[in-house]
Design brief:
The structure is a homotrimer of 139-residue chains.
Chain A: E1 2-8, E2 15-18, H1 20-24, E3 35-42, E4 47-53, H2 57-70, H3 87-97, E5 100-106, E6 109-110, E7 116-122, E8 131-138
Antiparallel strand pairs in A: 1-8, 2-7, 3-5, 3-8, 4-7, 5-6
Chain lengths: 139, 139, 139
């Protein structure tokens, strides 16, 4: 009924990255679930997870460009600046997009729409490898 | 313990729309759950779900106005422009608001606050009918 | 397997506040769960929940400053203005950050990253005490 996995994602550069396959390939128990939910949680405060288009890579580069304008670096009023100019914006972006996703599982597969994929949103210049906790439940 | 429903929402125009009743009316098993959770997931990348005020309709029109200013159309730096000027902003708005909601179920009902309702956030000019996957669990 | 709690948080001033301990201390059954999930839901439309850095308090004051610039008060195009100039921006901020969190539970504890804490995001000037519904499940 319950399975839990820790997954260490490959290090990626700042930006938005499709990681659906990297996650699903680490969940051997997924195929045993006919109806259930997958919860994936990122244990960091400067990277996040979202779901968006899995086809055209310019969607992902536009995400980076838009988020950088929504939450710019080096605003004179920022106080939390000791860890670099990318750090405070990374925290804000992480909360706007969120630290977790819950996705329905149907007949042993993630029940995503045709064009949906899981994005790792890496908001730091050098964020390193990111750790996920995946919790699967179902019957 | 587990129930899963596919729901096709009525087509709605671009904007923010209250859909609590349209969803709940399709969940005959909801009343059987004394303690549990409802998870609702939209299988699209240019529409989203959120919870906000269920009373004054100007909250919903203000949502549309504010989101259009936060993520404007036709920015010269956008690269993903082939599907129309509303498309890339729709993807960004969808990720800012998110593709799913999880709501507590108590005594056979969604345990929402007095003023809370579920919004379908339709970010495309002509998005068509949107498909949801609702997963109910509880005891 | 299922536990549900209503928690009334202390009244806090407008801004971002760490509430991890205030929540966990009200969940006596948490230690009984070896693998599971905690879902926490805020029953309001002008306050929200997020996860972010639990250490430097300037992260939280910067959150308030950035969100106030992203969604300013007193824009001339706002229609929902009867409840005060902080009200409509509070609704928008609440949906951008979201009304709920789902966090993995492992060996009787929230499986948060080292630097992660739960923030109450109080978007109103005088929001009063906020009510949460916490649903715990697991085995």
């Amino acid at each position: 009924m319950w399975q839990q996995y820790e997954i260490q994602l490959q290090t990626r550069r700042r930006g938005f990255h499709l990681v659906t396959e990297e996650i699903v390939s680490r969940l051997p128990g997924l195929t045993d679930i006919s109806v259930g939910l997958m919860h994936v949680f990122i244990q960091h405060t400067s990277a996040s997870l979202t779901i968006n288009e899995n086809a055209d890579p310019t969607v992902r580069s536009d995400f980076e460009a838009v988020l950088n304008r929504l939450v710019p670096e080096d605003e004179p009023y920022y106080q939390h600046t000791l860890e670099g100019s990318d750090d405070l914006p990374a925290h804000i972006k992480a909360s706007l997009l969120g630290p977790s996703l819950t996705i329905p599982v149907t007949n042993g597969r993630l029940n995503l729409g045709t064009w949906q994929g899981i994005y790792l949103c890496e908001h730091r210049d050098c964020g390193g490898s990111r750790r996920l906790v995946v919790t699967l439940q179902g019957g």
